[in-house]
Amino acid sequence: MISVSRRNFLKTAGIVAGSALVPSAVPQAHAAASQTEATSPSSGKADHTIRIAATPIEIAKNKIISVTTYNGQFPGPLLRFKEGQQVVVDLVNDTDTPEQLHWHGQLVPVDVDGASEEGTPYIPAHGTRRISFVPRPAGHRFFHTHNRSGADLSAGQYSGQVGHVYIEPRHEPGNYDREVFLVLKEFEPSFSRGGDMPQDVLFPATRVKSLEQKGEAAMKASLAKGMPHGYEVGYDIFTINGRKLGHGEPIKVKQGERVLFHVLNGSATEIRSLALPGHTFRVVALDGNPVPNPATVPFLWLGTAERVSAIVEMNHPGAWIMGDTSDDDRRHGMGIVVEYANHAGKAQWITPPKFRWDYTKFAKPGGTASAPDETFEMTFAKDNAAEEGFNRWTINGVAYPMTGAMAPAAFHLHEGRRYRVHMRNESDDLHPIHLHRHVFELTNIMGKATAGVMKDVVMLGGYQEVAFDFVADNPGMTLFHCHQQLHMDFGFMTLFDYV
Ligand SMILES: [Cu+2]
Description:
Layout: H1 6-18, H2 28-36, E1 48-60, E2 63-70, E3 79-82, E4 87-93, E5 101-104, H3 110-113, E6 127-133, E7 139-145, E8 162-168, E9 178-193, H4 209-224, E10 231-240, E11 251-253, E12 258-265, E13 272-275, E14 281-286, E15 289-297, E16 299-302, E17 307-313, E18 319-323, H5 327-331, E19 335-340, E20 374-387, E21 390-395, E22 411-413, E23 418-425, E24 431-435, E25 440-445, E26 448-449, E27 454-455, E28 457-460, E29 465-471, E30 478-482, H6 485-489, E31 493-498
Helix pairs in contact: 1-2
Copper (II) ion binds next to loops.
């Protein structure tokens, strides 16, 4: 595929999708149209239509809020694709604002990806865009807006624009009885000074001394000048699948059932946890990618935009609250009831023991990643309250332009080469770091080498360092950013290009 141009690749993909090798599903008109113009087949009906509009949603009994959603619902429609089988999607924007719809975790071209920084065209206000692409790779992906919010807490990921994508693999590993999709999401955001981000998320709990000294010195100097702490965002309402705890349908299970949960953190800014009292989670995939070493954990931690697929064996009959381990957030709605047959009644919560998330638990035991062809060093820093009261974020001293316009790429890739990104966090905040249009392999967590865990978002702890590797196998502008909306909007982005 290396020598094939993108246009030719899309042609080939279109032919495969329409050929007799793949039964039914893709109407000939789409495949034919895609051979002439990959991203705007002009005739025929789309496989899916996603309508972006402000709509009322009921998140609790007698509690209706108005947010921008996909198809008038929250979460948006679950889109099931087949790996490698082309789809045509109409994106309809009924709002007054041009929109970007990002296919998170998919290896799609720039004109489909949904990021203006890369050059994806906007879906015009009160307009439509037809796109077509070949879904890949298999697994749990999702789609969400890629608009920036800045100080507008109704825009971007603060809205209700989140939906699951499940790309069915050619061979489904079927050792479970059924699937349940969950999205964790807060509503009614407001600004505050200083946040309450959980501090006990990641393993190991250690810090890199030199990073801590620099970060603490910068913060001290800023506060000494009389600066307040930069703005953070808090929420009034917490939901799972768009309903506050106790206000939605319970998940009804039978004893002995093996339920595969696909959990998505759809938050704009928050780290989330998820526990089910009396049960454990066997993690089989991270960000939709099967892990080399499925392992059992007492509960889950997910950074913004992370996904975990985990099997729970229903072997503890009762009515339980599956919820966030933060008492405050759970009491404000971050939970859902799991109810065994013949065990209706008041759902119970039991506080789990402390547990830190260790990505290396799911790695190849004793595995070593291939050596990279080149390593990029990145240091992330915070200028406290420097941007009209918001923290300004920099990568190697540079903040991405606040306008969100396309900027020159800071890092350059050669197709086919393997790159390592060594990230050092000079701030005390946790950052869920995301790379567009590529899948990366975790290769080092706080000095410990690791291999085999494939992801598209990784949590980088305060004053910590992490490395991931990726192969440059999808030419075009590629956005790299922190997925925390307040961070990405205020500088925490950069671009890779192919040279
Ligand atoms: Cu961040």
